[in-house]
Write a structure and sequence with these properties.
Elements lengths: L5 E3 L2 E5 L6 H14 L5 E5 L5 H14 L4 E6 L2 H11 L3 E5 L8 E7 L8 H12 L13 E3 L3 H10 L6 H6 L3 E5 L5 H11 L3 E5 L19 H10 L3 E5 L6 E4 L9 H14 L4 E4 L5 H7 L5 E4 L3 H11 L3 E4 L3 E4 L3 E4 L1 H15 L3 H5 L6 E8 L6 H8 L6 E3 L4 E5 L2 E7 L5 E8 L2 H20 L8
Parallel strand pairs: 3-4, 3-5, 4-7, 8-9, 8-10, 12-13, 12-14
Antiparallel strand pairs: 1-2, 2-6, 5-6, 10-11, 14-15, 15-16, 17-21, 18-19, 19-20, 20-21
Length: 459
Amino acid sequence: MADRLLFSIAGARGIVGKTIDVDVVDGLTRAFCSILPEGEIVIGRDTRPSGQSFSLSAIGAVTASGRDCVDLGVATTPTVEMMTERIGAAGGIIVTASHNPVEWNALKFLDHRGIFITQDVSDRLHAAFKSNETASKGVNPGAVKEYAPAAQDHIRAILSLDLVDPGAIENRHTKVVLDCINGAGSVMAPQMLKALGVEVVEVNCKSNGDFYRDPEPRPENLQELAARVKAEGADLGFACDPDADRLALVDGEGNAVSEEYTLALAVDYVLSKTRGPVVINMSTSSVVEKVARNYAVDVFRTPVGEAHVVDLMLKNKAVIGGEGNGGVIYPTLHPGRDAPLGMAFILQLLAERNVSLRDQLDQYPPFFVTKEKVQLRGTFSLETISQLAEELNFVSIDTQDGVKVYYEDGWFHLRVSNTEGIVRVIAEASTEERALAHQERAREVLESSWSKAKPLERS
């Protein structure tokens, strides 16, 4: 699948120079303009090397379509989302491949609310792109407006939330090591933390697009940050992905912890102030449900993808939600994943409870989540995989997003990625041994579905 442009609810992405280039960006942008109501388009980008040329191509396509374009330059994904809504634009485009390696890039598309477009709109966009539809015939070119203070607007919006008390955080005298992987959060995130009175040690915050590590903020990719936290005697560490919509943590002992904890901590803090429904995706750890149970609120699950989570959050009037990949969504600010917001909530939680990150994490039930990527080598057949999974000892099976198999002591989830040509194999249990056993069982089912052989049955 990496040999073609990947279209999904997460946007259109590909490998630079192979499946996506400035001409593809131009066509995608013109197609997007053709399906939107009248109005401006907001554009922002992350720092990867192809970002500037792709952004210029998108800006040119917007103005050639007769629309004005608001150019935010380098900006985090949540910043672009918020500005699209607050400016009153017809839509927005974010030039970012998020957690993908540097050789990838993508366009993410927003509606007038600053929310990722729905599946039906994505299907219309895809059809318009394939048919080469444009909105540029017989129109006068639009203008380009640069808007420099977007990051400051985002910071002020976070600091003005009722749930954020900069004074309480400052009084804690917290020292944080921050790793923004030289991405879009490299300027905004340090500024926000300093505005909260936090002492910040910046690591890879140069906005130069030098992704020195795997961009996905998972524990195995954060060993440099973990070592720096310990060497600095810092209270904790924060790590973003290149577009700063996902957040991962390192405790004060220098241990990189599961990114699943990010959402659990944020949910714990918000529910302690405001009770209401929580929405998470199918692959998110059950620790969030266990935290929510302490507050007697409902938790709803959706297919993986921010757009799915946001849609159900708005329908159910959820007070908080997100994804276990480190994505915190607080709709009072804006219904989109926001790493800087996650930082503020976690700092506030630790300040109010006067605990270390490690002490707070130790209060949650033990869980282990394993995550593996398997190259897609055949058809991902829900029917075949479900039939094979039914030969195992299980409690229930859910097929609303791939195949998720529940056991008494955990689950495994098989699904095709929205962003890469891979199958994600995720499993959870209360012990690492059982989680790995579920993961092995899931891999067997997947491989057997391709070979049409039956998997081994394991207890």
